[in-house]
Design a protein that fits this description.
By secondary structure, this protein is of the alpha+beta class. Helix content is 19%, strand content 36%. It has seven helices and 19 strands. The strands form four sheets. Strands 3, 4, 5, 7, 8, 9 and 11 form a seven-stranded mixed sheet that branches. Strands 1-14-13-2-12 form a five-stranded mixed sheet. It is elongated.
């Protein structure tokens, strides 16, 4: 729903004053957190469930980059129960909007009002329990149109190593892992991590040494994407054993047997490469070179990636 300037002005005038939790970046080892949350990269919003023009609405108030003012206001479709709009202030949350597979998501990271009651000064243990109640009883995590937003909660863990392991392989870009205390009202500490993106491609060889092409799935047809990144001896040997007959890779006892007259008489460029072979291979994204590096043969039930899946990762490094 598009709002006019006067409508935005009215909504902003009726929005209560809220003080956001103080956030800091981690520059050294930090030990005192009780929980760790995933914070995706994206724009920050207040999410306000309230009655507007006599109807229950979900209003999104976009924050400026400094988080000190509201830069825009939107109304998007969300599946929720109208009880969240109770009273003058309804329910107010805070979080990040991000995109994955052409869908829009809201990562709900904090809550300030719950059914017209201010819980702004409550600790994180109380607030997270309220968020769990909110999602269990009052929100459906579904979307039907491009104007819909699917609400969700961060991934939350008490073990730092576990959440880092999860975060490294998430299919969307993260801003940070956030450290929080459950009882003490201390600042939130943001720790940035390096994510690891993996995809499965169909791979075919080229006549030229160390050149392999990766293909994605588009409407059940293979489409060529790019060359693979072969940067070390181990990867080279792995790929050669799949697609090429390299004497140096074979048992030394077989070298003399392989050097027969056919090998010397055949002067074609492709005599040592199997151009008719293709394999599904799991690859990892190398952001420095913007290429995919082969890791291992994929399991038989592993699906080939699509163009949308590729772009959701690669567009972050253009």
């Amino acid at each position: 729903m598009k709002l006019s300037f006067s409508e935005k002005k009215y909504i902003l005038k009726t929005f209560p004053r809220i003080e956001l939790s103080y956030e800091k970046k981690i520059y050294k080892k930090f030990q005192s957190a009780d929980i760790y949350l995933t914070i995706p990269k994206g724009k920050k919003f207040f999410l306000w469930f309230r009655f507007y023009k006599g109807k229950p609405c979900c209003i999104f108030l976009e924050l400026s980059n400094t988080k000190k003012s509201i830069s825009n206001i939107y109304i998007f479709n969300v599946s929720f129960k109208s009880i969240l709009c109770s009273g003058k202030y309804g329910t107010i949350c805070f979080g990040t909007i991000f995109y994955y597979k052409n869908s829009r998501f809201f990562n709900t990271e904090n809550i300030f009002y719950y059914k017209n009651k201010s819980i702004e000064n409550k600790n994180q243990n109380f607030k997270l329990n309220k968020l769990l109640q909110l999602f269990k009883n009052n929100i459906k995590q579904i979307g039907f149109t491009n104007n819909d937003i699917i609400l969700g909660m961060p991934i939350i863990e008490t073990n730092k190593e576990k959440i880092i392991s999860i975060a490294e392989t998430l299919p969307y870009q993260l801003y940070s892992i956030q450290h929080r205390n459950l009882v003490k009202n201390t600042p939130f500490f943001n720790e940035q991590i390096k994510q690891r993106y993996e995809m499965t491609f169909t791979v075919k060889p080229d006549v030229k040494t160390e050149i392999y092409y990766c293909y994605y799935n588009e409407n059940n047809n293979l489409k060529q994407h790019n060359v693979l990144y072969i940067n070390d001896y181990k990867t080279s040997i792995f790929m050669n054993r799949l697609f090429r007959r390299i004497i140096e890779n074979e048992n030394i006892d077989n070298i003399e047997e392989s050097e027969d007259e056919d090998d010397f008489e055949n002067i074609s460029d492709d005599k040592f490469v199997y151009l008719d072979k293709q394999y599904n291979i799991e690859c990892v994204y190398c952001e420095k070179y913007k290429l995919w590096k082969p890791l291992k043969l994929a399991d038989q039930n592993k699906e080939i990636c699509t163009r949308n899946q590729l772009m959701s990762i690669e567009k972050n490094y253009i």
